[in-house]
Amino acid sequence: WADPNKVRTGFGLEVLGPQLVIETENISGSPRALANLVKSACRSGVKVVQLREKDETKLNWEDKVVLAKALKQICSDNHSLFFIDDDLDLAILSHADGIHVGQSDTSVEHIVQQAPNLLIGLSISTMEEFKKSEHLFQHLAYIGVGPVFATQTKKDAKLPIGLDGLKAIKAKSPVPVIGIGGVSEETASRILDAGADGVAAISAFTKSNNLYKTVFELSKKE
Ligand code: TZP
Ligand code: MG
User: Fold this and answer.
1) Which of 151, 152, 159 should be mutated for ligand 1, with most atoms under 8 A from CB?
2) 0.90 exceeded by the pTM?
3) Contact, 199 vs 218, CB < 8 A?
4) ipTM above 0.85, yes or no
5) Residues 6+ away with beta carbon under 8 Å from 149
6) Cβ atoms within 10 A of the Cβ of 73, count?
7) Residue of 30, 123, 175, 189 with fewest CB within 10 Å of its CB?
8) Within a 10 A sphere around the Cβ of 209, how many other Cβ atoms?
């Protein structure tokens, strides 16, 4: 996956299937449990993993670096891409393939300047944010659009954009659109049918007792 030129101008995220987004808080605070889930998910077909360790994390900086490096290794071993949420230092130190940022995180321009080889994903919650971000699309591997549906997992999530909101953005987007928020084995196909190139999920993976099935359901159109 590592050819950044190829990836930046076509990337192929649209054929990579569901993205696993995960932090230790989602999995009993345990880095070991998190690493085990990532390993099983990769072996079950997940091709993109995002470590999203938020401010409330109980991990200190060293713990985070150790975890990120271990996850990068697991992803590499399984030919999956590894992304870090909004922490450029951690992304660089762990040799991550990419970084995912929100609207008020580290700026895309700064990342491009500091780490030109990192793939970049950007969160978009509304059509206004989409329009405001148009000058950045040339640098993006994908946009993460959502929450599509209500989610219990992200406490500060914005209002759901719904399938119509997602469709409207997809119709204008020059980069792959990844739907996030309330993605489940039941809802994923509706998001894909609405035009999303892929989905990203937390609880669909942490609650799964059959990761092969979860990956399959999260990849499937009706
Ligand atoms: N960004 C928008 S919604 C969300 C994030 C990180 C949380 C998704 O969690 P779940 O459990 O897949 O709804
Ligand atoms: Mg963020």
Assistant:
1) 151
2) yes
3) yes
4) yes
5) 160, 162, 181, 182, 183, 187
6) 15
7) 30
8) 6
